[in-house]
Amino acid sequence: QVQLVESGGGLAQAGGSLRLSCAASGRIFGIFDRAWYRQAPGKQRELVAIVSGGGSTHYADSVKGRFTITRDSAGNTVYLQMNSLKPEDTAVYYCNFQNKWDRRIDYWGQGTRVTVSS
Length: 118
Description:
Layout: E1 3-7, E2 10-13, E3 18-25, E4 32-39, E5 46-51, E6 57-59, E7 67-71, E8 77-82, E9 91-99, E10 106-108, E11 112-117
Parallel strand pairs: 2-11
Antiparallel strand pairs: 1-3, 3-8, 4-5, 4-9, 5-6, 7-8, 9-10, 9-11
């Protein structure tokens, strides 16, 4: 069974930076898309950034130019570098690994809280 563990959340001031990490334990078979989602209080969970199994990336418009998603060479760890943070980035951030060909194979982390003060 694959488990995802996020780290790196915390408190930052507006304009500051944080780096989130998501490490997968267990063996991952197949091609996976890896993504970060977030959920702010009272709002639905939304996609922040995704890196596909082929390495292409996609970002939500609200974070383009400020956030960068990367993964290690083994594909077991995915990162989210967050720069120029804004108070509206405050949310619980979740990482997700989803099999490209069988979407039922879908793993989620427990979430890490990011709070940005103005």
